Amino acid sequence: KSSKKHYNCDHSKINFSDKKSAVNSINEWAAKSTDGKLAEVTKDVEKTDGAMIINAMFFKPHWDEQFHHKMVDNRGFMVSRGYTVSVQMTHRTGLYSFYNDKTNKLTILSIPLAHKKSSVVFIMPHQVEPLQRLEKMLTKKQLETWMGKLQQSAVAVSLPKVSMEVSHDLQKHLGALGLTAAVDKSKADLSNISGKKDLYLASVFHAPTIEWDTTGNEMDTSILGTDKLKDPKLFYADHPFIFLV
C-alpha cells in the first residue's frame, strides 16, 4: 500500500536467498514488461540485503515522416577501418535540422518523432573512428551549442535498421550524480516503502531495448520535386555514431 501511495507502483516479493530464482524472477518480469523484447536484465545479483530498482523499457521510434519501405537494401557498415558487416539500410530525403561541425569533424542530425514533440539526435564523426573522442565531448554545454546551430536543410538520410538491447548497473554512477544517502546503509531512509529505516538502495539496473526501421507517419509529398529538396546534404550512417533521444 505504501509503494502504491507514495510511488504509484506495485511491488512483488523475491526470495533473494535463492539467487538463481531471484535472477529468473527479475528477467521474467522484464520480458513481460517489454512484450518479450528484453530477455535479460542481469545474470547475477551481487547485493541481496537491500532494495533494488529495475527499469526495463522497449523503445521504438515512430518517425514523424516514414522512410521508404521499398528502398531498404543491404549495405556495408564499417565497425572499424578493418571490419565491415552487412546491414539493412533505410533511406529517405527530407527537411531536417542539420549541422556540420567542421572544427570537431562531426555531423549532427535531428529527426523528429511523431507529432514533433521529441526527436532522435544523431552525432556522427566524419570518418570511421572509435567513439571515445566523441563521448568525452558530450557535455551539457556542448550539446546546447550543437542544438543551437542546427538549421533546417534538405538532407539525404541513410540509416541502418537497429535492434539492440543493453543492460547497465547504475549503482556506481549514482554517487557522482549526488545520490549518496540512499545507497548508504547508515544514512538511507526508505521507510515509506518498508515502514522501517533499515532499508537502503542496493542495486539500480537500467535495461533498454531499442528498435527502429522505416515506420512513421505518411510523407509530405507536396515538397517532392521542388527546390526545397534541391542539392541535399548527406547523412550516410555507415560507421559508428551516437544517438540521443
Ordered list of secondary-structure elements with their pairings:
Elements: H1 2-7, H2 19-33, E1 51-59, E2 73-80, E3 83-101, E4 106-112, E5 119-125, H3 132-137, H4 140-149, E6 151-160, E7 162-165, E8 168-169, H5 171-174, H6 191-194, E9 201-212, E10 233-236, E11 242-244
Family: Belongs to the serpin family.
Pfam families: Serpin
GO cellular component, one term: endoplasmic reticulum
What distinguishing features does this structure have?
6 helices, elongated, Alpha-1-antitrypsin, domain 1, Heat shock protein, stress response, glycoprotein, alpha+beta, 2 domains
Low-confidence stretches: none
- Tally of contiguous helical segments: 6
Number of strands: 11
Estimate the helix proportion, in percent: 10-25%
Give structural notes:
Helix content is 18%, strand content 35%. With 245 residues, it is of the alpha+beta class. The chain folds into two domains: 1-59 and 164-210, Antithrombin, subunit I, domain 2 (Antithrombin, Chain I, domain 2); 72-160 and 212-244, Alpha-1-antitrypsin, domain 1. Strands 2, 3, 4, 5, 6, 10 and 11 form a seven-stranded mixed β-sheet that branches. Strands 1, 7, 8 and 9 form a four-stranded mixed β-sheet that branches. The longest helix has 15 residues, at 19-33. The chain is elongated, with a radius of gyration of 22 Å. The model has no long low-confidence stretch (mean pLDDT 89).
